[in-house]
Amino acid sequence: MDTSIWIGPAAALLLGYLLGSIPFGLILTRIAGAGDLRAIGSGNIGATNVLRTGRKWLAALTLVLDMAKGTAAVLIAAAIGPDLAPLAAVGAFLGHVYPVWLRFRGGKGVATLFGIALAFSILTGSPFYALVFAAVWIGTILVTRISSLGGMSAAILLPVTAAVLGRFDLVVLFLALTLILLWKHRGNVERLMAGTEPRIGRA
User: For 34-76, what is each residue's pLDDT tens digit?
Assistant: First the structure.
């Protein structure tokens, strides 16, 4: 058996995972002297929890970097081989939500998934993956002030967007990542149903 055919896919998956597993929220809050992010608020390492430190600029930077690592992983892999982009996307997403460095306790994946959607908008020449995601994400948050609801709504519409555009290969990819994202948000779903999910600007 020619094992060389596995080198490219394995490298793309590993590249994505290593980039995705960089815990920017945790690193930035420590550098800024805000303490261990895992001991603050929900304990999550994403931008929403960074916002609970009271440093909006730090939360914004975390958001941008968590997005950027998803975009970078996909574009780098695509430059090596177009067929490797989906594997890098999977690796980056899994790296963010299950980073080995943090005992597989990572973020919930919304920003990184948006970064992946942005990368595929660039690769396919269709802006709709990123535009629909951003519009639903931001719009839902502006209306409800509930971060988790915005992220989940945007993620759910991502595979729908791919289906409308006739990219059923991406439907499978986006659906798989969305299901993982929803699993990571299961606690948020329970609180939404109970009416106890916190709103942005509140504890």
Answer: 777 777 767 677 887 887 877 788 889 999 999 999 999 999 9
Cα of 13 vs its chain's centroid, Å: 16
Are the beta carbons of 52 and 41 closer than 8 angstroms? yes
Q: Which long-range contacts (CB under 8 A, 24 or more apart) does 183-186 make?
A: 184/97, 184/107, 184/108, 184/109, 185/108, 185/148, 185/151, 185/152
Alpha-carbon distance of 148 to 163, in angstroms, equals 24
101, 23 Cβ separation under 8 angstroms: yes
Backbone φ and ψ of 58, nearest 5°: -70, -40
User: pLDDT tens across 158-199, in order?
Assistant: 999 999 999 999 999 999 999 999 999 999 999 999 999 988
Which whole-number Å values give the CA distances from 56 to 35, 52, 53, 108, 110, in the listed order? 15, 9, 8, 19, 18
Distance CA 67, CA 109 (A): 9
pTM: 0.93
Alpha carbon distance 176, 158 (integer Å):
11
pLDDT digits (tens, 9 = 90+) for 108-123: 999 999 999 999 999 9
